[in-house]
Amino acid sequence: MWVVRKNEIAVKNRKWSCVAVMMATLLFVGCGGQSKQKTESEMNTDSTNVASDQIQMQKDSMLATLTLDGMKVTWIRDNAQARLMPRTLFPDASDALIDSLSLQNGVPASISTFLVEKDGIRMLFDTGMGAPDSQLLEELKALHISPEDINYLFITHFHGDHIGGMMKNDSVFFPRAEVYASQVEYDAWMKMPAEQKAQVEKTMKAYKNHLHLFAFGDTLPGNIVAMNAVGHTPGHTVFQVGKLLVIGDLFHGAALQVIHPEICAQYDMDKKGAIKSRKYYLQYARENGLTIAGMHLPVPAFMK
């Protein structure tokens, strides 16, 4: 644990609250406000400015790269169309709060994966939906990377929009990748009803010869630390690699939840745990100067 004086924490919290308000103002004006509706390209520019001035956004708004701590980090957008999380996904948020942030039409988000290239190794964090219109394969092609070129898969949790891209029909999609997932997550899903765990069971069985189950706190290949972020799912994991923090589904609506981390999305299986994890890692990232990569953050899914 770190030690920070109370006045330092207060200053940092105010700074991050201001950043969150900027996100809400810049990204979502026009979603019920008085100004005109912004294009996604305009929203990309706004969120890029908030996240980091080092991000290089591709024109198609599907890829963005940054160099961080001696590694190349590439955001890959899996969703083909612009994505809004519906207001109904956040029942704990009051109408007054939603109105004040101009989020009545929904909260801009994404379905994202992150490719980290370090010391000649390619590591992919989550794999998107694997839907007919998913963009992961096409964007890997744009980077001149084939599925066979991926050395490691690190899975934050077992929801379908994170493991769906691991399979192509009934075959593994990343045949040479070693797969790392939480032992706690695996055990919990294996105890769920058959219809609920069907995709997980099929996928993990297909990768059984390459599957490695870790404990929280383990250091994995690439010097990646697996960290306890339970709440969204029983074994939800945050990964830290250098100054990058891959947070999975800590946020489903950043413009709302960065300011109010106590607000959960309906997808959170354990609300109390999800709130605790969200607050903890917001503070942890602030105090350690980390760049956050989130699977449902708005384009380009980086935040600092």
UniProtKB/TrEMBL annotation:
InterPro entries associated with the record: MBL_superfamily_lactonases, Metallo-B-lactamas, RibonucZ/Hydroxyglut_hydro
One Pfam family per UniProt: Lactamase_B
Residues of the Metallo-beta-lactamase domain: 110-296
Transmembrane regions: none
Alphabetized PROSITE patterns for the sequence: PROKAR_LIPOPROTEIN
Keyword list, A-Z: Hydrolase, Metal-binding, Zinc
Family label: Belongs to the metallo-beta-lactamase superfamily.
Protein name as it appears in the record: MBL fold metallo-hydrolase
Record organism: Bacteroides mediterraneensis
